[in-house]
Design brief:
Length: 123
């Protein structure tokens, strides 16, 4: 069976439309499923907006990649969770002066692992 040019054009548009409705990339899905809930449930209450403590605004990528005004070190170094201030604070080890979140309960090892993996994958 031969198909006409309009059929091929319609098929191409249909495929393009389906492709745009496909799920996000694996990294975007990982962020949506594993990282965003941790940030929303434990961090964004304080660390969002222009008056965020320590200048760490976790509401957007620009804020996440910002440097600490106190130390000059980046809060998050994409690809290097071990040198990221965020991981030092949430893991409650190392030389970070404050531990986060400032709640009675720490983040779980799984949550810390999810955030670390996200940073390792490029944040």
């Amino acid at each position: 069976m031969k198909f006409t040019a309009p059929f091929h054009t319609a098929l191409a548009l249909l495929i393009a439309g389906c492709a745009s409705s496909q799920p996000h990339s694996a990294k975007e899905r990982y962020f949506e499923v594993h990282v965003k809930p941790v940030l929303e449930g434990n961090c964004l209450r304080c660390h969002s907006g222009p008056a965020a403590p320590a200048g760490l605004n976790l509401a957007d990528r620009k804020g996440v990649l910002k440097r600490s005004s106190r130390t000059g070190r980046p809060f998050v170094i994409p690809g290097d969770p071990d040198c990221s201030l965020l991981v030092a604070a949430i893991s409650r080890k190392g030389t970070h002066p404050k531990v986060m979140p400032r709640l009675e309960v720490s983040l779980t090892e799984d949550q810390i692992g999810d955030l670390s993996e996200w940073i390792e994958d490029g944040a």
